[in-house]
Amino acid sequence: MAFLSARLARVKPSPTIAMTTRAAELAAEGRDIIALSAGEPDFDTPPHIREAGKAAIDAGQTRYTAVDGTASLKRAVAAKFARENGLDYDPSDVTVGSGGKQILYNALMATLDEGDEVIIPAPYWVSYPDMVVLAGGVPVTVPCPAAQGFRLTPEALEAAITPRTKWLILNSPSNPTGAGYDEAQMRALTDVLLRHPQVWVLSDDIYEHLVFDGFRFVTPAEVEPRLKDRVLTMNGVSKSYAMTGWRIGYGAGPKALIRAMATLQSQSTSNPCSISQQAAEAALTGPQDYIRDSRAVFQRRRDLVVTGLNACPGIDCPVPQGAFYVYPSIAALIGTTSVGGTRIDSDEAFANALLDEEGVAVVFGAAFGLSPHFRVSYATSDARLTEAVARIRRFCEGCN
């Protein structure tokens, strides 16, 4: 009898974490490494949020809380959804977890039975398919190539739905592409979903505030209120407020689903960190200047990276609507050989050779379900990005 479960054997370690770990190991050996693999803002958490965390410690708020979030944080989340998204949720419709990933995982674990299908547009965040597998479900990936803006079309959605479909996972703006759905594009999808009442929507809105060029963010339940009773709207403080390490995510949806997720959380992790909850409440209710200021910085960095990568031989880099990633194609480099002698027969070979030969860590496109591409996170300084782009250009110029 095997000790490890067969289900775990079907799950892969996160490729983004693996690449970031390898880059850190090379840096520890003395290599000059520029890591563009992690999806994490490089800014400090805003001061008023840090102070709220310190105040929580000093006030003795270091004990257990309600299993899926304090009442005051749930009120702040409900107010955020009303203020920013036009969504009317009671605090009892809200759940809080240890990061957005836990909200997603709880929802899937609480609802999926063996063989239930989950539609996942590709490219996708690397954790979606594996979380579905862990919950006993079947990931149904739908390719969304650059030619259609890396977006799911209503025709492709319709074709992917079967009687076993239980969820559609929708991430806008997207990790890894930065592609966003405007109101018309989102409505085209919700029109399809209205025809299939068994399909729920898991809306991952974690990059909501990181949008550029006047792009207006929308979320499915906002665009089509008739879907609200089968939408879980997930968000968090990690990306918008540079709070990745604080580990607070939240979601809102129908009470029966929220109760089921709370039951699961009560028997797994229990409550999120009490101190982090106080800090998250300060983030949602306090000054919002940081969002505006960081958005301007990220847009400048996006433009720097897109311009620089499009000047590299063999790279085609679309302009994303949001998040802090670009997802360039290297189709023209497939079949070439690097200066170091690596045959570039896949985007994984490209990423590994780039790290070995030029010290730039990116994540290969196959990890996100669509090749031949690679993902760059531009959540680092302009100087480091400029140097990274120069190294990538040098690497590409040497491929023949």
Automatic annotation (TrEMBL):
It is an enzyme of class 2 (transferase). GO terms for biological process: amino acid metabolic process. It comes from the Bacteria. Its cofactor is pyridoxal 5'-phosphate. It catalyses: L-aspartate + 2-oxoglutarate = oxaloacetate + L-glutamate. Residues 32-392 form the Aminotransferase class I/classII large domain. Pfam families: Aminotran_1_2 (PF00155). Keywords: Aminotransferase, Pyridoxal phosphate, Transferase. Its EC number is 2.6.1.-. InterPro entries: Aminotransferase_I/II_large, AspAT/PAT-like, NHTrfase_class1_PyrdxlP-BS, PyrdxlP-dep_Trfase, PyrdxlP-dep_Trfase_major, PyrdxlP-dep_Trfase_small. Signal peptide: none annotated. GO terms for molecular function: L-aspartate:2-oxoglutarate aminotransferase activity; pyridoxal phosphate binding. Belongs to the class-I pyridoxal-phosphate-dependent aminotransferase family. Homodimer. This is Aminotransferase.
